[in-house]
Write a structure and sequence with these properties.
It holds the Pfam family tRNA_Me_trans. Keywords: ATP-binding, Cytoplasm, Disulfide bond, Nucleotide-binding, RNA-binding, Transferase, tRNA processing, tRNA-binding. It is an enzyme of class 2 (transferase). The protein contains 8 helices and 19 strands. The protein has 352 residues and is an alpha/beta fold. It has 3 domains: 177 residues, HUPs (Rossmann fold, 3-Layer(aba) Sandwich); 64 residues, SH3 type barrels (Roll), CATH 2.30.30.280; 78 residues, Elongation Factor Tu (Ef-tu), domain 3. The radius of gyration is 21 Å and the shape is globular.
């Protein structure tokens, strides 16, 4: 097959491209330029998409002896990932930009262009497995990325390749070293690529006008302080709340709820974060939902799993959790699993 390898400049995508080539595919490497100011997109091990990364990707392509190109996706990335990220926080929700990048950029914009150019599939360095079109967890549970791929449609998965799904990360790094790839020991990127400083609140403050509101205690109803905007908070947050008085029992307080219209942020004790059920909309099912009662739902890229009973409708799902989860917020994705198989995903709209 003729395949396009998305090369970020990291070790995973480089080894994925190498394995696709070794499997006999006609491989072309492409690096996605996602920032209008790429020099600002890396600080140490944080972030990605810098000039440094594009150079690393090119060096790896040279070692693998495959053609290499850079595609400018900065405008599309801003429109489909960064701007919705800001808007979701302003609306009191908690988005996952990595998930939306996979959905809107790597497997929509890039895949659409690749197919138009005559490629058969897109290869990425994600840790996940595809068997007969079925998306499954990677064998390395610590690196499994099936959650952030759960938004992909069956048609998109039919044109995807994930060569790393059967390997632990240590094996991938060792292979990169054997192949002479300069990224063999390159640190993994962390946090949100377009916020390399890790200061999400500062990033949002630069893009949103102040909209002051109250911090209210869920138990007593007392006003504990004021804030400059709900975008600075997410459900489950403990630090940086700006509370003007400690709780009567001396215990820490957490963000329990965010109301963007009244601009009220509710805080309370940690046990109030327990979520026993959730509703979600905009479902994506892989080849028909096939949901049974014996499923597991996941609400975060790492962790946040619980057995659940899922009820499906045309426009969403309801999940009753067998054990409570904490820090679940509207805007997050819920991915439904049967064993290691991804059945589908949806966007959380409310919790109970």
């Amino acid at each position: 097959m003729r395949v396009l390898a998305a090369m970020s400049g990291g070790v995973d995508s480089a080894v994925a491209a190498a394995r696709a080539r070794d499997a006999g595919h006609d491989v072309v490497g492409v690096h996605l330029a996602l920032s209008a100011k790429p020099a600002t997109m890396r600080e140490g091990a944080r972030g990605c998409c810098s000039v440094e990364d594009s150079h690393d990707a090119r060096r790896c392509a040279d070692v693998l002896d495959i053609p290499f190109y850079v595609w400018d996706m900065a405008a599309r990335f801003t429109e489909d990932v960064v701007e919705p990220f800001v808007a979701e926080y302003a609306a009191g929700r908690t988005p996952n930009p990595c998930l939306r990048c996979n959905e809107k950029i790597k497997f929509s914009a890039v895949l659409d262009r690749a197919l138009a150019l005559g490629f058969d599939a897109v290869v990425t360095g994600h840790y996940a497995r595809l068997t007969d079109g079925v998306l499954r967890r990677a064998v390395d549970p610590d690196k499994d990325q099936s959650y952030v791929l759960g938004v992909l449609t069956a048609d998109q998965l039919a044109h995807a390749m994930f060569p790393l799904g059967e390997s632990p990360k240590s094996e991938v790094r060792a292979e990169a070293a054997r192949r002479g790839l300069v990224v063999a020991e390159k640190p993994d990127s962390h946090d949100i690529c377009f916020i390399p400083s890790g200061d999400t609140r500062g990033f949002l403050a630069d893009r949103l006008s102040e909209a002051p509101g109250e911090l209210v205690d869920a138990v007593s109803g007392a006003v504990l302080g004021r804030h400059s905007g709900v975008a600075g908070f997410t459900v489950g947050q403990r630090h940086g709340l700006g509370l003007q008085a400690p709780a009567a029992d001396g215990r820490p307080r957490y963000v329990l709820g965010i109301e963007p219209v009244s601009r009220q942020v509710t805080v309370g004790p940690v046990e109030e974060l327990d979520v026993h059920a959730l509703s979600a909309s905009a479902p994506v099912w892989h080849g028909g939902h096939g949901v049974t009662e014996d499923v597991v739902v996941q609400v975060r890229a790492h962790g946040g799993l619980a057995p659940a009973r899922v009820t499906v409708s045309d426009d969403g799902l309801e999940a009753a959790l067998a054990e409570p989860l904490r820090g679940v917020a509207p805007g997050q994705a819920v991915v439904v699993y049967s064993g290691d198989r991804v059945l589908g995903s949806a966007t959380i709209t409310s919790t109970r």
